Amino acid sequence: MVDIRPFKAITYTSKAGALQDLITQPYDKIDAAMQREYYAKSPYNYCRLILPIEENKYTAARERIQNWLNNGILAKDPEPAFYIARQTFTFAGKRLTRTGLIAALRLYPYEEKTVFPHEITYHEPKTDRLNMLRAVQKNLEPIFLIYSDPENVTTNFFAEATKTTPTIEVKDHLGVTHTIWKIADAKSLEFLRKTMENKKLVITDGHHRYESAIAYRDEIRKHGPWTDNAAFNFHMAYIVPVQDQGLIILPTHRLLRKLELTSSTLTALKRYFAITEIQPTAAAIENFLATHNSEHAIAIYDGAKAHGLILKDENAAATLANADCADKACLADVAILHDIIFKQIMKITALKMDENITYAETTRNALEKVDSGQANIAFILNPIKPETVWHIAQNGRRLPEKSTNFHPKPASGLMMMDITPNEKL
Fold it and tell me: Nearest Cα to 141, choosing from 402, 419, 413, 409?
């Protein structure tokens, strides 16, 4: 059973300055150049909390939060609330919106089958976020999750609630408008809590933060008496219906740095794929993938030629690409690439980031990396569908890292949640 609670959000006050100078992308999307840009925008930019540039970053974040609270740069709302969050953005020439609920979500270990992961996680980023939790005792960014609402119960509620005046509206540097509505009346709070009770949730972004939060919760429980409504048993979450038309996933393309595309590899690929040679340009590759987006299609580029691959037998592929989910609903192109092309055909047993595999978010960038010698082969993919992610996670499967890139990202800095030991929900 899903337990969501309203919470007393900590937000910027007017003393902090213009909100567009304070919000950021999520911490794991901030590179060194962005970090410097954010620091230059404001002495109160949120990057100074989620990804401090200082060597003692955890101490720096803790001291800043306390200082900003003491000096009225940040303030805690006196009443608990849920929040409706909407992103308005342009994608493929269309104006879209994505609407979800921000709430305190009780932490559930995966084995309880209430919250499901969909990607593999790694030790180092979990250790980093655990250290940050220990230092600041705040949820600085929400976990992003999806749930199913086929009857539009929550969607209809959001539609009515967002007819009122929002409490926050700001456009980020990528042109995405982020709008927040506060929901604090008792009737609405109870309605949302009851509506979400029987849902299953799938993490889209924030696997490392979620798993770190469970580890932190278990640490605190060992230190002394605790109650079920202690805030550290929860994590701030942004939850969106999987049916939302603004739930967009961008592809992340794979590039191999050491292996070559040989004639024997192409011959072996013919066992599973129909192969055609296509023009070695970004436009031609994207046209091929778009034309075959209802099939399982992958494009390969080696600097000289490009080939389009169409999977021939979904049933056969499902048994290879889904060890414990021989179901076509679990069949994702990225799983086909890793489990059939990489493992079965190319005999690749391990892929290490920046050593033998790297990534690109656009077709053009993938081709440029091959042309410049940064990689030998690029594998270009169509984006995975949200429903496919949902089915894969519900079947207990995890996709390879960087399989999904949900777009746009929730802005960081709109609010945080207090999880100090004495905070109750």
Answer: 413
